[in-house]
Amino acid sequence: MPPTNPARRRALADAAIELLASSGVHGLTHRAVERHTGLPPGTASNYFRDREALLVAAAERIVELHHADTGRAVGHPATLVDLLTESLLTAATTLRDRYLAIFELRLEAVRRPALASALARLQDTSLRITAGHHDELGLAIPREKIPALIALYGGALFTLVTAPPGSVGRDVVRNTVRVIVHGCATHDDPER
Among candidates 104, 64, 81, which has minimal Cα distance to 153? Predict the structure, then answer.
């Protein structure tokens, strides 16, 4: 049974996230996490029995942090465009490393069924939480459209997070969000 010190477990998962962002999935090892946190050898493996458990812990921590951020945003009523603009801008700038790490994990999950399963569970949770937040904000988004909205958000997030640092600005993000929310066609477009 892993140790039950939740603060140390979070610190190890946070270090794993930082290493994923800076060194990629291949740079994430128990020893690298221990060096990063200044903890003695063997500490990380006491909490996470193998590398896959360490990867899953990093994914779970990212989702925990994301949901905490989303929960704080719900306290500030806004339009969907405003909400998504702030979320994407923050993710692509202030929280860039967190999302670089999650993209590393998503790619690694293609080859690791246990990680893929953990990420799928987290995706299901995200759908429910997102729907709840939309309800709290009074956003009239049909439940069946939320997965598509999350997919579009994820694609925009990938594009923005992997852009050169410093190249992402509010106007670019807001224009992207307007297309996500309202589509590409104009009202006078005959193909619409």
Answer: 81
Report the alpha-carbon distance of residue 135 to residue 129 in Å, rounded: 10
Comparing C-alpha atoms, which of 1, 34, 41 is closest to residue 15?
Answer: 34
CA gap 106, 120 in Å, rounded: 10
Distance of CA 167 to the CA centre of its chain: 20
Surface-to-core class of residue 99, CB atoms within 10 Å of its CB (0-12 exposed, 13-18 middle, 19+ buried): buried
Q: How many CA atoms lie within 13 A of 178 on its CB side?
A: 9
DSSP letter string, 20-52: HHHH-GGG--HHHHHHHHTPPTTHHHHHSSSHH
SS3 category, 67: helix
Q: Considering only CA atoms, give the Rg of the chain.
A: 18
The whole-number pLDDT of residue 186 equals: 65
Is 55 within 8 Å of 116 (Cβ atoms)? no
Spatial distance between the Cα atoms of 119 and 126, rounded to a whole number of angstroms: 10
Residue type, 108: E
List the structure tokens of 57.
């812990």
Instruction: Report which of 150, 121, 146, 149 is spatially closest to residue 135, judged by C-alpha positions.
Output: 146
pLDDT tens across 57-110, in order?
999 898 888 878 776 665 665 788 888 898 899 999 999 999 999 999 999 999
